[in-house]
Structures are given as C-alpha cells and as structure tokens.
Design a protein that fits this description.
alpha/beta, seven-stranded mixed sheet
Length: 358
C-alpha cells in the first residue's frame, strides 16, 4: 500500500504541522492549493495550537488564505442578504445548500471553505416567480444557446446559473438535488419539509442534518468531476464529526437515505471518509449500509477508482492509471445522470452542433 499524501496525513492529524520542515511545508502548500484547502490548513493549525510553530514563510501563506476567507465570508453574508431582499415578496423560505448553508450556520465544514456560487432550493412550480425576482435584482443567465436552455430546464435539476451584472456573484437555483433524467428520484418535497430555520436569519433555512450529509454525499458521488473531490470529502468528514455527536443522528441517517433513494452514494461517502480521512463512523451504520453497496468485484474496482480520484490533483500525489480512473468516473457520472440514448444525443450535440464557446 502506498503512503498517503502529506496533505491527507495532515488532515487526519493537524498537530503534525507543528513539526514539518520547510521542504515539507512547500509540498504541503502545493498539495493544499491543488485541493482548494489552503485556508482550511490555517484553521486546523490554529485549532491544533501549532500555528506559532509554523515557519514564517509558510505561515505567511496561511495568513493570506485566512484573510481571503474573511473577505469571502463577508461577501457571502452580503449576497445572502441581497437574495433575501430579492425574494422577500414571494412568501417562501430561502433554503440554502452546500457551502452557503455551512457558512450561515457556522458549521465546522465552513471553516476554511471557499466556494464560487450560492445554491438555493425552491419548489419547481415556483421557478417562474423566483427567476424574474432575481433578474429584477440584477442576476442574469448567460446561457443564451437554445439547446443549453432546454438542457437545463427540461432535463436538469436546476435552471441555468445566474450571475449578477455588477458584482459577478453567481446563484444556482435548484428545484431538486439530482437531474430529472437520473435513475434515482429523491423527492425534493421531503427535503423542503424537513428543512430547519437558521437562527437570526428570518426566512432562511438549510437542510436537516441527515439530509445535509446525504446531499453532500450525492453531490460528490453522483458527479463525474473530482477536481474538488478531496475538499468535498473533507466537508463530509467535518459534517459527520459535528452531526455525529448529536443524539439520534446516526439512527436516522440510513433510513433517510433509503427513503430518498440515495443509500448508494451515502455508502460511498461513509466508506471513503473513513478510509481516507479517518472519519469515525459507527460499525452498525456501516453494516446497515453494506447491502446498498455494489457487489464484489465491482466494489474492488470502485475502490481503485475513487481512492485515486479523491487524492489531491498534484504531481506529487500522482499514481499509475490516475488519468484512466478519472476518465472512467467522468463517464460513470454522466451515465448515472442520463439514460443511454439521451446521453448519446446530448454528447453528440455538444461535440458537433452547439456553437463553440468564446
């Protein structure tokens, strides 16, 4: 078995940063930059009380990343306030997903986490109200191609991304958490019904803890691109640590995943969070999910693929067949999201008919 990358070792045992050499710091920072986890290193070093032991040059990098994060957090708060104002007249809660949800709740998963857009969950039947309200507040779609519009509005779980004409902030408006063409059909009404209010933010909600973990698992293991795979797995690691300490969380997690038809991605999430990052997952939870995993030898193949794709995308972490593993998972992700004939039609259109993007 090959030795884990230095970044993985530090994520598992942050106190190790207190004894790294300058050469090790150079390698660690390069791996963290590739994984979008530099600001997380600052938070981990601070909480492990080893920040003062970090040599001056790498500490400067960490402090710069922390300053960027503080600016990012202020920007998120501002954008959420502007979205609340834009949708204030619609008499509906603003349900935030992923990074924005972690941030407004102050969850451990938000510490050191940077993200590029704000994700919302709204009822599909109210898209016709939400989209114009956001447009009036300055957010516009830049997907003008007729095929792209149809792709999003007929087949996908979201409308085309909307970018603010002045600030450049991006909103993804979701009405489900998987494409309408996917084999699994988690009912978004169940997610909305269980959403919980964010203290201090009127009309703002986030998914319930079990749903938040299941959505994070689905986002990672239904996707075909893993350039941010380790960061997303680290999100899961921290969500599991925080929610796992709450009474009833583990008892509710597996039944909820089955109800939402998402036990398979949760199986992968818990398996690799434990294997890669050392997440503490109760044995009985893993045993309950085992029937939802793939049979052998398919599981051995998935291990070989995921344990490559979830490593930092840095040359120091490269192994033989990494490229083939990522390509195979990209094909798998598209296969899971669309039936074969529709997928073939879509890929043909994007390759030969859609105008090139400039």
């Amino acid at each position: 078995m090959t030795e884990a990358p230095l970044l993985i070792a530090v994520l598992r045992a942050p106190a190790r940063m207190g004894s790294l050499t300058l050469a090790e710091w150079e390698l660690l920072l390069r791996q963290a930059l590739a994984a979008n986890l530099t600001a997380s290193l600052h938070d981990l070093a601070e909480r492990a009380r080893v920040l003062d032991a970090v040599p001056r040059a790498p500490r400067r990098h960490l402090e710069w990343a922390a300053a960027l994060l503080r600016r990012h957090r202020a920007g998120v708060q501002w954008e959420v306030a502007r979205i609340r104002a834009a949708l204030a007249g619609l008499d509906m809660p603003l349900i935030l997903l992923k990074g924005a949800a972690y941030a407004v709740c102050g969850l451990a998963a938000s510490r050191g986490r940077l993200f590029s857009d704000i994700d919302l969950l709204v009822p599909r039947e109210r898209i016709g109200e939400v989209e114009p309200a956001l447009m009036l507040a300055g957010w516009m779609s830049h997907h003008h191609d007729a095929y792209d519009q149809r792709y999003y509005r007929v087949w996908m779980h979201e409308i085309p991304p909307m970018q603010h004409v002045q600030r450049g902030s991006v909103i993804d408006v979701h009405h489900a958490i998987l494409p309408l063409t996917a084999a699994a059909h988690p009912d978004p009404a169940l997610l909305r019904a269980a959403a919980v209010a964010v203290p201090g933010l009127e009309r703002v909600q986030v998914l319930a803890p079990a749903d938040m973990v299941i959505h994070s698992a689905t986002h990672l293991f239904y996707d075909g691109e893993f350039d941010k795979g380790l960061r997303d797995l680290f999100d899961l690691h921290r969500l599991l640590a925080e929610f796992g300490a709450r009474p009833g969380f583990w008892d509710a997690l597996v039944p909820r995943a089955r109800q939402l038809e998402l036990a398979r991605p949760l199986f992968y999430a818990l398996r690799y969070a434990a294997r890669v990052l050392g997440s503490a997952v109760p044995d009985d939870v893993l045993a309950a999910l085992a029937p939802s995993g793939p049979p052998q030898p398919l599981l051995a193949l998935m291990d070989a693929l995921f344990l490559r794709a979830l490593m930092p995308m840095h040359a120091s972490c490269a192994r033989r067949f990494d490229g083939a593993a990522r390509k195979a998972l990209y094909i798998r992700g598209n296969w899971l999201r669309m039936p074969p004939l529709l997928l073939a039609r879509h890929l043909f259109h994007k390759a030969f008919i859609s105008p090139p993007k400039t």
